[in-house]
Amino acid sequence: MCDDKSNMQAYAGVDVGSLATKSVVIVDGNIAGSSVIPTGVYPEKAGQEAMKIALASAGLEQNELRFIVATGYGRITAKYADKTVTEITCHAKGASYLRQAARTIIDMGGQDCKVIKLDREGNVDDFAMNDKCAAGTGRFLEVMANVFKVSLDELGPMALKAKSIVPISSTCTVFAESEVISLIARGEPPEDILKGIHQAISNRVSGMASRVNPEAEIFFSGGVAKNVGMKAALETALKSSVYVPDFDPQLVGALGAAVLAKSHGPKV
Amino acid sequence: MALATLGKFKEALKERPAELADARREGKKAIGWIGYYVPEEVIHALGLIPVRIGRGGDDRLAELGSNYISTQNCIFLRECVGLFAENKDPYVKNLDAVVVDAACLQMYRMSSIIKYYFKANTLVLGVPRNYYLPEGREYFRKEMGFLVERLENIAGHELEAEKLVASVKLYDDIRRAVLELYKFPSLYCQPITWREVFETVQSGYLLDKEKYLSLLKELLAELKEKPDSFGGASPEKGVRVLLTGSAIHPGDTKLIDIIEASGGRVVCDNLWSGLAPYLDKKVEDATLGGIADAYLGRVPAPALPYFDGATDPRLNTLKRLAKELEVHGVIYYTLRYCDSANFKVRNTKNALADDGVPLLNIHTEYSGSDAGAIRTRVEAFIEMLGTADDKEMRQ
Predict the structure, then answer these.
(1) If DSSP codes are grouped into helix, strand and coil, which group holds residue B67?
(2) What is the pTM of this model?
(3) What confidence score (pLDDT) does residue A267 get?
(4) Distance CA A253, CA A49 (A)
């Protein structure tokens, strides 16, 4: 993609999440390549592989990178990175890059959920995190998709078709699964149950968000941000507009890592 | 360069269990105690050996304790019960009685359980909820008198006024030395770390008191001789952190390890197991009544009722320390089911925010399963507070 590479400034961010590993390459300040692959059981290999694919999509080799920042729970295994930074800081940077006015981020990933408050410069001002419980995470929705025997992508659109709502009283994944099975057996419409599931998660996330005094609008990132039903449920629970970027929301952390790599400049 | 006196503390601590066992063989009696209002100097004045009991950080012992006390009690107290259940701790197995104050009601329950299951001779010291009223002070004076009667029975003689005066003086000297020692980790050059100070103070609860004071004086002299103690060295990098919340006990190092590994520097604490008991304690009158008033007049234990935010001495002490020590942030440690610390997080966070001091709450137990998650939070907090390096990255 670059004819003259002598002055090219290429940086990579790698976000090794619990379920997916993501990488973004930026060249001269612009997003040039990206990738999303399953993390599997070898996070270090997954990070290298994701970066390799992102580099290939940008037409670059690893030796052309000036700096690499790794983030996500697997950052501690990222020997290939020049620096590691937490996903909280990276999400802040990624969101600011995509939407300078962003002040509150809700990131719903595979196994954790976080709310990040930003200052005017896009720095982290406060944050709250839930990662001891699967409620409010992609994993919770995966379990529910399995109960309904539908794909993860179908959950949100189905919830939006609900004519009514069946409240779910439990946000514990295990108990909620039993509750949903009982509701199905009772003959409740799947769409209405799914709306209840989305509402239960969004209420929980909303409670967590209140700890950081969120400011409108909400920037929604992470794999779960692709779920239109969750976006709608969050808007209701938070009484605020929720913005999902056109750029893949699952890549926001990796993008932030790449932005931080760029700000760090070339390695000495 | 390592401080030589710290090695002497370690040596003394290593020898202490054998010393204690020898002393008991010679007819001396050891009194275990735990809490915030137990008058250690009175135990000492009676010729009894005071030993603060309790350890933290051991999930196995906590699980053992959970066979006797509900798991909906804080993990520190569950571990305390586990210590009695196992009866291998060199201090726990060498006790003639255990004094527990009832400021924390879970601790009070723990005292009932170790009495019921393990036949521990427990003496409970009542603590008034209305500690700020004259009636509360009167009640506590009477409770103190009742405790002393029971301790006198164990000692086999009455409390002597002269010995009480001497013990009050000894404990006041220790208090002054501890307060002086606590100033060093907050110096920018940090000639001694907060962890070293904290461990030193914890060892003092087990050591012979005269020996402890003598070692404290030696340590202070060594620190003052260090060329970089006062303004000699340039400020080092590191985010300055103040610790508060649930008590941290010896062995409970998970959070401290993570803070240090993440580039944070603890400069002070405001814990009831750390600095708090030494603040604002003035025994004006070395009598039982004077001692009772002095204990009740200190910064109150976290378990006692709170005043309105603006007037609560605990909150004000925290705010004062944060300001005076120029900390970048406060880490508020809460153990699951330590409700007296848990429910105040938001209020404390808001009060500190008014002073521009961010607060991170770490809510945990003793198992290591959440170490990765805590590490992410602490690292993110340290990144947020910003070392010079991180600030550069933010630009």
Answers:
(1) coil
(2) 0.90
(3) 60
(4) 17
